[in-house]
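quick one before i forget lol
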Amino acid sequence: MHALLQDLQYAFRQLRKTPGFTMTVLLTLALGIGANAAIFTLVNSVLLRKLPVADPATLIRIGENNDCCVNSGFNDKGDYSLFSTDTYQHLKKDLPEFADLAAMESGFSYRPIVLRREGEQTEARSVMGEFVSGNYFHTFGLQPSTGRLLIDSDDVQGAPVAAVISYESWQHGYAGDPSIVGSTFRVNTKPVTIVGIAPQGFYGDRLTTTPPELYLPIESMASLANAPYVHDPETDWLYLIGRIKPGVALGPLQQKISGMLRQRYATRKALSTEFGKPFVAKTHVVLTPGGAGIRQLQEEYTSHLRLLMWISALVLLIACANIANLLLVRGMSRRTEMSVRTALGAPRSRIVRQLLTESLLLSGMGGLAGLIVAYAGAHMLLMLAFPGTQNVPIGASPSPLVIAFAFGLSLVTGVLFGVAPAWIAARAHPADALRTGTRTTASWASLLQRSLVVLQAALSLVLLVGAGLFSQSLNKLQSTDMKLDSANRYIIHFNPQAAGYATTQVEALYRTIAERLHALPGIVNVGISTYTPMEDNNWSNSVQIQGQTDLHKNASFVKANAEYFGSVGTYVVMGRGFLPQDTSSAPPVAVVNRIFVKTFFKDGENPIGHRLGPPGPASAGDFEIVGVVDDTTYTAVQWKDHGMYFIPMVQRFASDKHPIENDGSLYAGAIVLQTERPMNDMEKLARSTLAGINPNLTVVKFQTFDQQIADRFTDERMIARLTMLFGGLALLLASIGLYGVTAYGVVRRTSEIGIRMALGAERIRVIAMVMRGAMIQAIIGLVIGIPVALLCVRFVKAQLYQITSVNPVVLIGAIVTLAFAAVVAGIIPARRAASIDPVKALRIE
């Protein structure tokens, strides 16, 4: 211990004596380790995180896909992950292998609820609410923060509607008021009693940017959300997660559940037909670990986070090469000191231990600095990945695992890159103390230094090319002609169903909304629709053109009013759009896009006058096609050949024999306002206008059309910016490395350069000599880096848009950037070499 303290004291003194060296190493370590720790913070939070529940390892999910949201008919692949309420109840009863089996609503983020506390003059709020089974919290082994959680008796027909509020909503929305428990809230205008507060830190059964604020029983959904499919045995809408009993083998259980489903699904209407029977044999489930919950966010970000891990690892490798060079230079400069210590009797092991102590001290300090960089970097990553999101349950604070990761990296770096210089310095012969240290420097050490610089240059080029490709990909996405007009357009998402409107009332409501909004100055068009272009939403079904024999072609559909096409900037290219006269009592009509025409009709065939409807041998063709519109982009630019049809907002499928009260497609989800000019107060005006119609008619989300479009490129923008950031960081580190080696070479050759200049060498020749050595290393790095960059494209092209190879402009730009950095890094020591005074250099010699 005494020797260790001596080593530490001496190490501190040595580091204080060379502040430039110390700060350079610490900064390099902080950037390299901090970048990796920041990425690992996000990886740990998104990919490695387990649900904050009891014993997550025993949770098993029935299904492996994140299907959404309400499905009926049949599954082409037969791989089911969504189930009906009826199927859930039978599986819960007939599967004794599960200690508990819980069900939860899929796609709750698309169906927000309106919440207001009874008796208070506060505005109703649009929040996320999730409908779950009565044993939901019990299955996860959770205890309430206050009050109680939902139980099985809450989830039965006729029971008083109970709800559990999330801990975060209780704290932030109601200041932790204990009187919340037992109080009455209005959920979609209907009374609900809050029976308890969920445990702190619980964010639901899946990681999402919009976690639930309220948990409600499944049986209350029919009345609260007017959901007709809750008890429909043909409609799948629930995810299932259960806690497996000890000793149960998953393979046989998976086969058992698959057999049970095949037996049950054989009686379904869609699967009992001649067309549907072949799909029964395909019916199966895949049991997957449920400890991480429903892996929606994980699937979305897995490929991006893995890419960022590789990129940050390359940056760390460049940083390590830099540190190795710095330590090697330092070791070479201390050979004389080590020779003297050896001559005075210091054993080689003692010298190695001392130098390793310095390396470990440096790496430990670098690890601490890296945590600071990691915290700031994680904050930046969260803002890039989830812009504008307030409630995402992902923190930037390093977890114990991240801290261990950072210090593990720093220790490995210290040992790995401290051993070689320590060994070289420890091999110093005592006789070297009587000679000039610079002349006894091993040539292989200089070769190692130059090799490390070449490695840095090669890796930097790879990252620069990657940054250029992702920036090019983002530019291609954003510059795509989406066949719409977003200028002076505003999107208001709202939920008339949650405001208490019945389906028989919405036609009058939509007229009132249009009239009130048109009364505002500057309003040109008021479009009302189920959803809008470049929105994370899609409604689709199978469609047949009357008289055609093909029974199974899919198309997406949007329900909209007469002003919708004008409001989003979609042009009618044939026939007509919707008219105000296309009401619920008018003949049903439809408008299709060009891709729909190409998909369903022969070349040159006029679609006007044809009828479309659900498939079937006796399809009546519910809607007459009256117009064709341009191919406006919906959902994502990457979705090509997207056939779509549009029908009036208040018209129904003639083949739909269900009562109008059960037709959820009559509920609009968005209002698109086109204005004459930009209006900064549009959100305030929209909120007050809707509230004036009905206080429960809340704004779920307000955005400009441009903002909505930009949100669809969030992932690509994050990757492009981070690759540029990491590419710049790599270039900076490589430049520092090249500068360090070149400067050290100038110091070693001081006497040689002095002699050359004393014999008449011109300054320009000296500069050229030094620059030649620096540029050769950069050129070798380019020669190695170019084929590596070309090879790496194949591993990332799946994340690029319409890019399969390296664009010559991107490659040349990366080469020029690296070459310029090499010139800057080399010119400084080159000019210093040309300024050497021959007399002083010879005197030193």
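fyi The first helix runs from residue 2 to 17.
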